Serine protease grass-like (Drosophila albomicans), 300 residues
Amino acid sequence: MTCDNNEEARYPICCPNEQSKTPEATLKASQNLGYIDPKGLQLLKSYPDCGGKYNGERYSFNVAHGKPAKAYEFPWMALLKYEKAGRPFLCGGSLITDRFVLTAAHCTTTSFELVAVRLGEHDLDTEDGGEIEYGIEDIRTHPNYEHGSINYDIALIKLDRIVVELFIEPICLPINVSQDLKYNENLYIAGWGKTEDGVPSPILRMAEVQQQDLDVCRKYYSNAPLSENHICALGDSQQETCRGDSGGPLFSANLTDNTPQCVQFGVISSGGLGCGINKNRPGVFASVLDMLPWITQNLY
């Protein structure tokens, strides 16, 4: 067994020696949801400029009660397009490699057929030439997800071709120890979901939230058992996730080695359906860190 012992790595890349590789060992590893696939991890590490459009200043925009994000400020944001009348976009997602989009599992199991993923979008009411739609080659839902549940609510969408546009780039995932999530850390959500008027926003918006103890969310989601593979987060002044934001990222925005970088820690699973009214309901997110082994196993 040989390993890359980079001290910054959360999961050192270890590869069996050639003589120790057997089909049985490979199959057993792939069935272990706690197994970090070295090839998948190496792929995530191959994007040193991920999450790089953050400008180093503290964000202050909102999804509900807020201002729009700047064009191309979040070049990893994705919209999921469905075969339906009216507005065809029901969920969001995030580009994590040049071929895969991370989203919520419940966004891939709706009654509407998921037909495409749009990247490079900012304002749905305006075409500026940056919007690009990709077909879907494959959808991979976490094997422990059950329809209607918020447990293991995570999925990967493989695009039909590689993303080559320079203005579209992936967000980082928390693969290094220095990217640990802290309770007092400012986190952000983004999406085109409903605003305080109850109408889906045509412009990408965002909100600042803070991680809460899971018991805070348990008060609001008593029928949905929450576990350590969830993150509970709540914003100030009625900032929360809204219907239509599902599948989008929960991310930090910090300077890493003096380099602006956004790191995704969660996937929006369930949020405040009041969307701007005084309930100030917290949002529930699937933990990317807990799902990271499964993610690395499915980036092929």
In short: Residues 13-30, 54-67 have pLDDT under 50 and may be disordered. Residues 288-297 form the longest helix (10 residues). The helical segments are 23-30, 38-45, 214-218, 288-297.
